[in-house]
Amino acid sequence: MSHEKIENKVALITGGSEGIGFGIAKTFAEAGAKVVITGRDMNKLEAAKEKLGSQVLMMSADITQVKLCADTLNTVLKKFRKLDILVNNAGVGIYKPVSQTTIEDFDLMFNTNVRGLFALTQACIPELKKTRGNIINIGSVLGMRGMPVYSVYSASKAAVIMLTQLWAKELAPDVRVNSISPGGVDTPAFVRMYGEEKKQQVLEFISGHHLMKRVGQPDDIGRMALYVATENWITGSNFVVDGGLSYLV
User: Fold this and answer.
1) Residue 115 DSSP label
2) Cα separations (Å) of 130 from 37, 134, 172, 229?
3) Is-contact 141 182, C-beta < 8 A?
4) pLDDT tens digits, the chain, 249 residues: what are they?
5) What are phi and psi of 242, to 5 degrees?
6) Which of 29, 120, 127, 129 could tie 174 with a disulfide, CB 3.0–4.6 Å?
7) Candidates 95, 153, 194, 247; catalytic one
8) How many beta carbons lie within 10 A of that of residue 19, not counting itself?
9) Number of other residues whose CB lies within 10 A of the CB of residue 206
C-alpha cells in the first residue's frame, strides 16, 4: 500500500538483504519509496532484489571500510540525485562471556555497529540537510538493558542509542534522527548461530521472555520504521519494539 509521505522518497538501507533490513526495505518499497539496499554478499542481495522488485537498487558495500562510505552515497546520488532517508541497520552480534571474547570480536562489533554507522552517517549528512531528511538507527533492547554474555554487543548498541540522541540535537531542525530498539526478531542470524534444527527450539525459548509470547518478525520493525520515517515532528526518540521483552529482563 502506497504512503503519500514516503512515496518517491529515496531511502538507503544498510544490511538490507535479509532480516530486519529486508523487512524495512520491503515495507518502504511497498509504500512507494525508492529503495537502495547494501550488503556484503551479492548472492543474498540478488535474492533480496528478486523478492523486492526491479525498482530496488542493490549494491555491494561493507560499512567497516569507512573510506568507501562516500562511494556508497555517490552511487545513490548518481541514480536518484538525492537522499531522503538513511537507515543504519547493518550490524554484527557475537555473544560470548567476557573471558572468551577476543579483541577481534570486539573490533568487528564496534567497527560495524558504531564506527561504520558513524562514517556513513557523516558522509550522508550534507545530502540529508538538503532534503530535510531523516536518519533511523537500529539499536537493540540490549543497548538499554544489558545481559550477561552480550556485554560487548550491548555496549555497541548503547553507543548507537546515545549517538542518536546527540545527533538529533546537533542536526535539528534540518535532519531528524531516531532509533528503533527491537527485541528478539526471527532472522537468518538464528540459523547461523544455532543451525536450522535447533533454531525453532531457541525461538520458542526466547518467545517465553516476551510479554506477547512470540518473537518479532522483520515486518514488525519495518512498520515502525515507516512510521518514524514519515512523522516529521519526531526526533531524538528511541522506539522500543520488543513485544514486552524489556519488561521481563
Assistant:
1) I
2) 21, 11, 13, 16
3) yes
4) 557 799 999 999 999 999 999 999 999 999 999 999 999 999 999 999 999 998 899 999 999 998 899 999 999 999 999 999 999 999 999 999 999 999 999 999 999 999 999 999 999 999 999 999 999 999 999 999 888 899 999 999 999 999 999 999 999 999 999 999 999 888 878 777 777 778 788 888 888 888 999 998 999 999 999 999 999 999 999 999 999 888 776
5) -140, 15
6) 129
7) 153
8) 19
9) 18
Residue ranges of domains in the chain, CATH in brackets: 10-247 (3.40.50.720)
Residue 29 φ/ψ, nearest 5 degrees? -65, -40
Judged on CB neighbours under 10 Å (0-12, 13-18, 19+), 144 is middle
Q: What long-range pairs does 226-229 form, CB within 8 A, spacing at least 24?
A: 226/3, 226/6, 226/24, 226/27, 226/28, 226/31, 228/134, 228/136, 228/178, 228/180, 229/6, 229/9, 229/11, 229/28, 229/85, 229/134, 229/136
Would residue 153 show up in a list of annotated catalytic residues for this protein? yes
CB atoms within 10 A of CB 208: 9
pTM across the whole model: 0.95
Whole-angstrom distance, CA of residue 192 vs CA of residue 44: 14
In the block, cell 552511487 appears at: 75
For helices 151-171 and 103-110, angle between their N-to-C axes, nearest 10 degrees: 30
